[in-house]
Amino acid sequence: MTPKATQALHANLAALDPVDLGKDMATWWRIFLFNPETGHVKMLVEQKNIIPYQGADILARVLAGDETYAPGAMFFEFENTVGVPSVPTPARDEGIEYYLSTLALSAVKDYVRVPLVVTPALSASSSDYDGNQVTFFAITAGVTGIHGKTFDSAVNSKVYGVALAATPTPTSYTQDLLFSRSYDGFDPVPKEDGYQLGGQYIIRFR
Question: Which among 173, 186, 182, 195 has a CA at the least distance from the CA of 94?
Answer without folding.
Answer: 182
